[in-house]
């Protein structure tokens, strides 16, 4: 028999990334990709050029999604 104490968790166990942190990060990143895609497809003029400001805003939203995921995992809302 093992003398190790049983692990106790203060939060429910999530499997395969199904955690609130993962869901929040994916949804925020999805919005960021949507904004960046709109910026890529809808240019500022009649020629076919991307709108770099909107693409940058989409990239910032994606970065924010990564930060939100990391913070939520640190607060115990992610997988172990």
Molecular structure report:
- This protein has helices at 20-41, 52-74.
- α1 (20-41) runs antiparallel to α2.
- The longest helix has 23 residues, at 52-74.
- It is mostly helical and 80 residues long.
- The two termini are 25 Å apart.
- It has a domain at 33-80.
- The chain crosses the membrane at residues 21-41, 53-75.
- Keywords: Membrane, Transmembrane, Transmembrane helix.
Q: Helix/strand-derived class?
A: mainly alpha
Q: Unreliable stretches, pLDDT < 50, 5 or more residues?
A: none
Radius of gyration: 19 Å
Rounded mean pLDDT is 84
Q: Could you give a short account of the major beta sheet?
A: none
Number of strands: 0
The shape is rod-shaped
Q: What letter string, H or E per element, gives the SSE order?
A: HH
* Residues in β-strands, percent: under 5%
Number of helices: 2
Share of helical residues: 55-70%
Determine the N-to-C terminus distance: 25 Å
List the helices and strands and how they pair.
Elements: H1 20-41, H2 52-74
Helix pairs in contact: 1-2
What's this entry about, in short?
Keywords: Membrane, Transmembrane, Transmembrane helix. This protein has 80 residues and is mostly helical.
